[in-house]
């Protein structure tokens, strides 16, 4: 076999390996942790809220229509955006519009769209907060530099961007039994956040309790009911908003 033929065969094998890796990667990216249909249905059937599906996100609005505050929520990596409908529905009932983003390739860090790609889904909102679950929360830190952002909310997450020198209001939910974004991980990264960050522990909750998508590998055990987590998220968010009022 000549050298040219050997090189040609090697090149074909390399090309085949690249194509195979691309196919495997594409399949992996499109395999999301699906949401619990029953929990999502509860949100869809909730008369107090209205849900609209758009190309860039899922918009949850109070049925009353009387709202001026909004939250752009970024899902965790490879988690179905619909898995968060139930846990965030209480926030909406209390008057805050929530836009759950649909990240590119189901990964927040692959999404290069600006914040207004999502806020335009609810043009009536005057004040926007950003937040997210797990890696979605880390991504939300990148949106925090947008001048339209009024505050940041972490759901089992932390920041990789130094915001310690800012006066941005921050609310951080920490799940007691979180095996992925552990309470210790979050405490170790606390120095990157403003000193007056409000931290709320959810007793008995684990990482997956911030949504409804089943068991997640590496997570701790949940010992709390879904409705209790929803109520705690709702009550603490509203208390935080109320405290921000001048």
UniProtKB/TrEMBL annotation:
The cross-references to SUPFAM superfamilies, in alphabetical order and at most eight, read:
alpha/beta-Hydrolases
The record's section on Pfam families has: Abhydrolase_5
Alpha/beta hydrolase fold-5 domain boundaries: 71-227
Keywords attached to this entry: Hydrolase
Q: Name one GO molecular function term.
A: hydrolase activity
Superkingdom, taxonomy of origin: Bacteria
Q: What is this protein called?
A: Alpha/beta hydrolase
Q: Which organism is it from?
A: Mycetocola zhujimingii
